[in-house]
């Protein structure tokens, strides 16, 4: 990673970004398709800066379109994106390509622009919210997910309220929430005004309660809809199958008499929503 967020050790231990060629990645996926794979995740520490090192700022959008065109590829994901590097070209590619899943994982980390500056994230709260608007303009039904850190050094109650404000405004489908913890060797570990653990825990609890409400609301919107689910396997007790929607929502449905295969697409009508998953019945 080339970013050097002040809390993160990755750039020190993993070194600088290097992009594989598009042809090389496409060849690997074509070989995997021949072996029966259908779902692919393009993985990079900062995946949407792909290709900047060979001088093409739109390389990631081009890569997505090339992968989408490979016969036999059914679902494409990518992780992890950096909000600073998320371009309109990539959002358009997601909107226009049949197999790219409509899930934007955009870690915002903190809602306060001052904390974001000290994290060296390269965007402000306002820029982040503009990016969310752009995503919704092209892909109105996209699931937007995120990562959030609470208790970065110097985070005041007002700063934390800005984080809650972003969570309320965006309505994330899900969020990975973390308590800031020092990584020795990083600039943030040496910053003054470290937040006491009790305060960090209390903020995390408030954040998780708010996000749980958002997750439930997003899942409730699916009730009554028939969604395409990629079957992942039966539960341990063999009473339900589980799989995921294109936007990554976990779906459970009764096994009943039907046989399913891992990787099979199943249409499931959603009947009930919970915070972490939805339940329904297969309608194929
Ligand atoms: S948080 Fe992500 S973008 Fe920032 S330095 Fe670490 S790996 Fe890079």
Brief write-up:
With 284 residues, the protein is of the alpha/beta class. Helices cover 34% and strands 21% of the residues.
Task: Walk me through this protein's architecture.
The longest helix has 24 residues, at 197-220. The strands form 3 sheets. The chain has a 5-stranded mixed β-barrel. It has a 3-stranded parallel sheet with strand order 3-4-5, with helices on one face. Helix 3 links the parallel strand 1 (39-43) and strand 2 (75-79). With 284 residues, it is of the alpha/beta class. It folds into 3 domains: 1-75 and 89-99, Transcription Regulator spoIIAA (2-Layer Sandwich), CATH 3.30.750.210; 102-221, Transcription Regulator spoIIAA (2-Layer Sandwich), CATH 3.30.750.200; 226-282, OB fold (Dihydrolipoamide Acetyltransferase, E2P), CATH 2.40.50. It is globular, with a radius of gyration of 20 Å. It has 8 helices and 10 strands. Helix 3 runs parallel beside helix 4 and helix 7 packs parallel to helix 8 (197-220). The N and C termini lie far apart (44 Å). It has helices spanning 10-14, 22-34, 59-68, 88-96, 113-119, 125-138, 157-170, 197-220, and strands at residues 39-43, 75-79, 103-105, 143-150, 174-179, 226-234, 240-244, 250-254, 265-273, 278-282. The structure holds iron/sulfur cluster (SF4).
Describe the structure using short key phrases.
alpha/beta, Transcription Regulator spoIIAA, OB fold (Dihydrolipoamide Acetyltransferase, E2P), 3 domains, three-stranded parallel beta sheet, binds iron/sulfur cluster
**Backbone CA Rg:** 20 Å
N-to-C span: 44 Å
Q: How do the helices and strands follow one another from N- to C-terminus?
A: HHEHEHEHHEHEHEEEEE
SS strand fraction:
15-25%
Question: Low-confidence parts lasting 5 or more residues at pLDDT below 50?
Answer: none
The CATH first-level class of the largest domain comes to Alpha Beta
């Amino acid at each position: 990673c080339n970013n050097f967020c002040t809390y993160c050790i990755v750039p020190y231990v993993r070194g600088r970004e290097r992009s594989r060629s598009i042809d090389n990645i496409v060849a690997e996926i074509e070989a995997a398709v021949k072996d029966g794979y259908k779902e692919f995740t393009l993985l990079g520490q900062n995946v949407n800066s792909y290709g900047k090192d060979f001088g093409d700022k739109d390389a990631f959008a081009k890569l997505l379109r090339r992968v989408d065109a490979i016969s036999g590829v059914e679902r494409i994901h990518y992780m992890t994106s950096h909000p600073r590097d998320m371009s309109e070209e990539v959002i358009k590619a997601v909107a226009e390509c049949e197999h790219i899943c409509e899930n934007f994982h955009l870690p915002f980390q903190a809602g306060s622009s001052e904390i974001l500056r000290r994290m060296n994230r390269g965007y402000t709260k306002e820029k982040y919210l503009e990016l969310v608007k752009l995503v919704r303009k092209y892909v109105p039904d996209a699931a937007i997910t995120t990562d959030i850190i609470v208790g970065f050094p110097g985070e005041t109650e007002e700063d934390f309220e800005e984080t809650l404000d972003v969570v309320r405004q965006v309505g994330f489908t899900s969020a990975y929430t973390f308590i800031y913890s020092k990584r020795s060797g990083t600039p943030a570990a040496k910053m003054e005004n470290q937040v006491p653990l009790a305060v960090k825990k209390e903020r995390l609890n408030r954040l998780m309660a708010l996000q749980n409400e958002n997750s439930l609301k997003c899942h409730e919107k699916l009730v009554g809809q028939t969604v395409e689910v990629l079957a992942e396997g039966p539960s341990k007790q063999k009473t339900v199958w589980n799989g995921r929607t294109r936007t990554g929502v976990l779906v459970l449905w009764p096994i009943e008499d039907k046989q399913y295969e891992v990787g099979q697409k199943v249409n499931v009508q959603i009947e009930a929503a919970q915070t972490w998953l939805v339940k329904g019945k297969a309608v194929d």
